[in-house]
Amino acid sequence: MSARASVQQMTYADYCELERAATVKHEYLRGEVFAMTGGTLEHARLIGRVIHLLSRELASGPCRVFSSDARVRVEETDLDTYPDVSVVCGEPETSERSELALVNPVLLVEVLSDSTEAYDRGQKAAHYRRIPSLRGYLLVSQHEPRLELFVRRDDGGWSLFEASTGERLSIEFLAVSIAVDEVYQAALPR
């Protein structure tokens, strides 16, 4: 998802009602609601490629890939947001406060945009790290063929794995590997 467009105050229950009928997605953080703007065509294309590649690799196993229409809730920090891609292994679990918000993703993916890169790398990453089930956070560059995967270690810290043109990114906790060139196949001209 791209930039936050506007902010308003509301209760979580009111936010959930808003989202049921909304034609625009909103992010919720501790009573503040932000309307989200759309992304570029390349942003949308890259999301589609990541969904396609992960779905292909995970098709025969217990993991499911969700698009940016799937809302994720970070209970500990009171954030609801729409990652570009989410992966859940096993049965999807939802928040006790909203049956439409996933709480057990193992992988979250954000395609970086100029307007949200600092947020995706900083505050949003800090929120995501509070999800107990989360094993990895993948950042996909829009400007160059580069993938960055942050993986939770057994000690609770995070390790960074990067891949670029001609390389594959191994996502060991999912037992999959993604070719960077496949993600960026048929890139739109800039």
Automatic annotation (TrEMBL):
Signal peptide: none annotated. CDD domains: DUF820-like. It holds the Pfam family Uma2. It comes from the Bacteria. Residues 13-177 form the Putative restriction endonuclease domain. Gene3D superfamilies: tt1808, chain A. This is Putative restriction endonuclease domain-containing protein.
